[in-house]
Design a protein that fits this description.
By secondary structure, the chain is an alpha/beta fold. The chain has twelve helices and 18 strands. A hairpin with a 2-residue loop joins strand 12 and strand 13.
Length: about 375
């Protein structure tokens, strides 16, 4: 049996559910599941905050006895291994599901086709690859952590038309308007963690939380790249570390007294290898991935933005432009990083342009 119009419609509904859970399900992927029997939706769910229960279990619980003989539309291949919960494949089989339609395969070596094989062995009809590209896009943070050992990295910039983020005196609030700032908070809400460099923290003392009421239930993870742990103990991020996680990426061998003071206030300190510029960003991203982060939003400053772009560690850019020009004495959004030949310039592909009041958001993806 091949996918028909109804299959596509129900899978799009499952994908919409999965998008709703982005930033809320780590360390697991956000998965959407829709259970349909005789053209009627009897169950629907997205992965719960914190990654458990899985979407399939929640949707099956909603469907109850109506799941027997029904079709389950799942955005990512159901798991078939035992973790803190039982395999979703077994839950689908035990519920009597007659057919499973899947968008993308799970790249985890414990699954990666084995989940589909388990379903087929139990006599469940399986349709694989329905809206695969959309499914892989929704799960690309999880895919990045599994395949590359680092989170999907989105660099967010808010600047003038000529790429300036602050006046020569350091004034930066506010370059963009309210609609753009609200969209930036939504980006935080769809990310597992937000990263800034210590320079930005010392200059602006940001909270780095998603402040859209009701947008996100689980705490934001705030991450600071602070090689020598210079962050003030009275900063907003440290003061709220017990309520909202605050992680500091520091060089190995950082002053242990300073580390103890930070951890005593509820912050988490993660030591990584050093580099001439501070910390090894590749190692830092790998450490975040090991901690479960799949989608990382980088909000500045210019030095860390340059270091990430130079190291080819930026997957997406979300660039907010205000209709103003500041001139060359303003602070650039990305510091110089030694490009001498045009052929060496990192290239990105524009995917979407969104008007936001007087401002414009341009979304870009790293060119293949």
């Amino acid at each position: 049996m091949t996918a028909g119009p109804d299959d596509l419609a129900h899978m799009r509904a499952a994908l919409a559910l999965a998008r709703r859970g982005l930033g809320n399900a780590w360390p697991n992927p956000s998965v959407g599941c829709v259970v349909v029997r005789e053209a009627r939706v009897v169950g629907r769910a997205v992965t719960a905050p914190g990654g458990r229960p899985h979407a399939e279990a929640l949707a099956l619980a909603m469907a109850g006895a109506a799941a027997r003989g029904a079709t389950a539309y799942v955005t990512l291949e159901p798991c078939c291994h035992h973790g803190q919960t039982g395999p979703c494949t077994d839950a689908l089989i035990e519920a009597g599901i007659g057919r499973v339609v899947v968008a993308a395969r799970d790249p985890d070596a414990r699954v990666n086709g084995a989940g589909l094989a388990r379903l087929r062995e139990a006599g469940v009809a399986v349709e694989d690859g329905v809206l695969r590209a959309e499914g892989e896009t929704v799960a690309e943070g999880f895919f990045s952590r599994v395949r590359r050992g680092r989170p999907l990295v989105t660099l967010k910039l808010a600047s003038t038309l000529d790429g300036r983020i602050a006046t020569h005196g350091g004034e930066s609030k506010w370059i963009t308007g309210e609609a753009a700032r609200r969209a930036a908070h939504a980006l935080r809400g769809r990310s597992d963690a937000v990263l800034v460099g210590v320079g930005t923290l010392l200059a602006d003392d940001p909270k780095l939380t998603c402040r859209i009421p009701g947008f996100k239930k689980v705490p934001d993870v705030r991450v600071v790249a602070d090689s020598h742990l210079r962050t003030r103990l009275t900063s907003s991020i440290v003061a709220t570390a017990r309520e909202t996680p605050a992680w500091f990426l520091v060089r190995e061998g950082t002053d242990p007294e300073r580390v103890r003071a930070m951890t005593g206030l509820g912050a988490q300190v993660i030591e990584v290898a050093g580099s001439p510029a501070g910390i090894d960003l590749g190692e830092a991203l790998a450490a975040l991935a090991r901690a479960g982060i799949t989608r990382l939003l980088v909000e500045g400053g210019a030095q860390i933005a340059a270091a990430l772009v130079r190291a080819d560690l930026v997957d997406r850019i979300a660039w907010f432009h205000a209709p103003t020009v500041m001139g060359g004495d303003g602070w650039p959004g990305v510091q110089a990083f030694g490009i001498e030949r045009l052929e060496a310039v990192p290239r990105f592909r524009r995917e979407r342009v969104v008007p936001l009041g007087e401002d414009v958001l341009t979304e870009l993806r790293r060119a293949a």
